[in-house]
Amino acid sequence: MKIGIIDADLLGRKAHRFPNLACMKLSSYFKSKGNDVELILDYDDVDKFDHIYLSKVFSDTVVPDGILDSQNITCGGTGLFYEKAEPLDQEIERCRPDYHLYDKWQAKALSEGVKKASLTYYNDYSIGFTTRGCFRKCDFCVNKRYDRVEKHSEIAEFLDSDRKYICLLDDNVLGFKNSKEIINNLIETKKRFQFKQGLDLRLMTSETAALLSSCKYKGDYIFAFDNMKDEELIRKKLMIWRSFCSKSTKLYVLCGFDKDGRYNEAFWKQDIEDTFERVKILMAFKCLPYIMRFNKYEESPYRGTYINLARWCNQPSIFKKMSYRDFCEMCASSTGNDTCATVRYAEMFEKENKSIAEKYYDIKYDTSLDKSA
User: Fold this and answer.
1) How far from 229 is each of 32, 122, 151, CA to CA, in Å?
2) DSSP 3-state helix, strand, coil percentages of the chain (rounded to 5)?
3) What is the SS3 string spanning 92-119?
4) Which of 41, 187, 299, 356 has the fewest CB atoms inside 10 Å of its own CB, making it the most exposed?
5) Which domains are present in the chain?
6) Distances in Å between the alpha carbon of 173 and those of 135, 182, 208, 258?
7) Are 240 and 205 in contact, with CB atoms under 8 Å apart?
8) How far apart are alpha carbons 327 and 192 in whole angstroms?
9) What pLDDT digit, counting tens, does each position of 286-324 carry?
10) Phi and psi, residue 109, nearest 5°
């Protein structure tokens, strides 16, 4: 059979720099059965295949009308079914990913001027899960169906010895009872590795901090600070972490989300203040915030402030040098327009919430003790 694979996010998003693991496993499986497998690079080509498998990770990725209703197509992924997405059949799940599935697309991208460095996850990383699941059941997360963290696979199942690095997609590896064994197994590969989804800082212990900080980690260590109710625990765990590790550390900062759906003026004001406060706390521990905006922020009267916060915090080279006010003023001077949107958003929020602006607009990251600066 002639099998087509569609990575819907690859075709439907302007920038997509991470391969779809399900697509690579499907490709590996069907090739092992003697089928001709090809990554589809244009929706106009769908009629050329006996059967098509489409995977979609992001819910806002656009798929052309009629594609999902085609009789010769099987669809899956969180982008279509969110937490109810069906897992791959175990026989497919156990396949080593086909790391060459994207070769033709890469050649085309490079010929069109895409930088090779931006394709590193397609070429340099072995990608997989060692554990699956999480017990947190966060309202905003696709993993609500899980009750615990369970072992998923051995590293050998997805390891390509020719690739320099390992990328883990585990949902909450520190919630697994034998997480230290997994980390030691990764260390034994002698390859640098990273947990792409981040690690649960609330589960940090001195033993884990010592182990993680001493390994050959690739990139920033990534945790999360999603809710101010965790402030005391986050401070306690960051103290443990920083007693062992002075390397670059980043925390996802979720904003614009309310589990009770109270998206009113009082919520938006408090959420902005809480976001600034979490940023300030992370500054104190020489950590970098990464603003994650829940899509409801689009409905906020302070939508512009959410945009400004993300632009300020999510560019470390700027965040380390400038306060929020400095950043907004810099944007105005670079455009030569004193009424640019960045400044307008900042001034509007300050006018309506003077006490919050006075408390946070001028706070600055101190690089004097930051070894990653």
Assistant:
1) 50, 38, 30
2) 45, 15, 40
3) HHCCCCCCCCCHHHHHHHHHCCCCHHHH
4) 299
5) 1-99 (3.40.50), 253-373 (no CATH)
6) 11, 9, 12, 26
7) yes
8) 34
9) 999 999 999 999 999 999 999 999 999 999 999 999 999
10) -60, -45
CB 180 within 8 A of CB 208: yes
123, 18 Cβ separation under 8 angstroms: no
Cα separation of 275 and 225, whole Å? 10
| End-to-end CA gap in the chain | 54
The size of the chain, in residues, is 373
Give 130: exposed, middle or buried? Use CB within 10 Å, 0-12, 13-18, 19+.
buried
Q: Give pLDDT, residue 363.
A: 97
- Tokens of residue 136, six digits: 């947190």
Q: What is the 3-state secondary structure (H, E, C) of 273-284?
A: HHHHHHHHHHHH
- 337 confidence band (pLDDT: 50, 70, 90): low
23 DSSP 8-state letter: H
